[in-house]
Amino acid sequence: MPDFVLEASWEVCNKVGGIYTVLSTRAKVLQEAMGDRLVFIGPDVWKEKECPYFEQDNKLFPKWVTKAKKEGVLVRTGRWRIPGRPLVVLIDFEPYYAVRNEIYGAMWTEFQVNSLHSYGDYDEASMFAYGAGRVVESFYNHQLRRAGQRVLFQAHEWMSGLGALYVRTHVPVIATVFTTHATSIGRSIAGNDKPLYDYLYAYNGNQMAQELNMEAKHSVERQTAHNVDCFTTVSDITAKECAQLLDCKCDAVLLNGFENDFVPEADDFPKARRKARRKMLSVANALTGSSFSDDTLIISTSGRYEYKNKGIDVFIDAMSRLQKGNSLRRDVLAFVMVPAWVSEPRPDLVARLSSGREFHSPLENPVLTHNLHNMQSDTVLRALQWYNMHNQRDDRVKVIFVPCYLDGKDGVFNLSYYDLLIAGDLSVYPSYYEPWGYTPLESVAFHIPCITTSLSGFGLWANKEKGGVSHIEDGVEVIRRTDYNYHEVTDTVVRVIEEYISYAPAKCEKAREAACDLAQKALWENFIRHYYEAYDIALRNAAARVSDRQ
């Protein structure tokens, strides 16, 4: 075990994706093992604005902060407002833009990282990563070197890759771990409608990066994987992807766990569920003018706005097919909770909700809770129009698009994602590209059976736990998905929903209990051992590397 762990990610105190969930839920169990010998490093993107996830504490390492500033490393110290309250260093990476060409030149010379064709968020992430490397170097020199500590640095995703490479050069005694949660080129291949899985064996990562204009991100990811002491990913399916597209086999697979601090206690669970259902049904009534009984089946899908990769296309198509069927015994209310280019909560909807009344006529465009900047070109809205899903009064299936981050301050629901998730009866995540799949894991943690696919790391893990193919009565329905069976997957989603609707209450409750039982197996206390294995590999390889150089 290391004496000290420094861990960098773009999503430290910066909630923008699934890695935030990985780090924030894992922090408590790691903090219990290491105490304040665990320090997270994140980007100071908040500046003068108050960060809701960060509590600044100027009493933490004040001498080092002063020395670091003299070295051109501008940081704020504090604690992350999550269970465990781990130490955090936020780095101001803006000053490094002025010397980014020199930084890129050095990375090319030392590690052949090709940044020539960079664009978009590459510069921003790379300057943060470089800054994170500088933080590690400075912190080690002033706080840890004299103590002779075994120090480990873990970098997450390509956005932190340059930091690991910097540490490898400037502080070679520190063991390095690099974790890719999804390869940038694999995600791009899938998102560009190219068959990823049947032809994986034939793809060359460098060639595809050039074809898809992904050279810079792919290069830093590939070279970091090849030059750290331990290269890891989050599932077996992504490990295969890494071996082929990055030409580098993973040293360890770090399954993504969950901490049930987010789930209400048994005594509070029914009350929280009732509150969430009332809110979702009232929003649906205010939008559509339809009344919804307590036994309305609430279904949801959520995650990043990757229309094909996350299976949003399958979900909407399935709701359309479900609508056309004649076997529904209950009304179905389906929520697409995917952050988009939101502009504001709809004023007309907010006005209706604030009145506290029940409504019997729909608002204009009764499928959308928040206005968007790109209303005419939004993919979900266009799909709903294509499938003629307009939430008319007689429709047994109604679909509502919630295009905002559910942080409790969205202006419509004003509840967090977890506070709303608990209302669901069933969730659907028919992903095509899903290295792990936090959304289905979160679903089962909240006792909600879910549908996912065999192309998600979570789905494969659920099958492994079952010892065969997992079905909805086991808490998770894992649908076989390939490059070419879109319609089969969609029809299966419809069939499973229809079957679930027909279940007696006792059978539904049994499925909910099975979902909860499965989630318990994925707690961090069970999965953290994989991290300890990666630490061991990195420390041993680093020790051997340093010994060889002496």
Structure description:
With 550 residues, the chain is of the alpha/beta class. The longest helix is centred in the last third of the chain and has 26 residues. Helix 7 runs antiparallel to helix 8. The model has no long low-confidence stretch (mean pLDDT 96). The chain contains 19 helices and 17 strands. It starts with a strand and ends with a helix. Helix 15 links the parallel strand 15 and strand 16. It has a nine-stranded mixed beta sheet, with helices on both faces. The protein has a six-stranded parallel beta sheet with strand order 14-11-10-15-16-17, sandwiched between helices. Strands 12-13 form a two-stranded antiparallel sheet.
In brief, what are we looking at here?
With 550 residues, this protein is α/β, with parallel strands linked by helices. Helix content is 44%, strand content 14%. It has a nine-stranded mixed sheet with strand order 3-4-5-2-1-6-7-8-9, with helices on both faces. A six-stranded parallel sheet has the order 14-11-10-15-16-17, with helices on both faces.
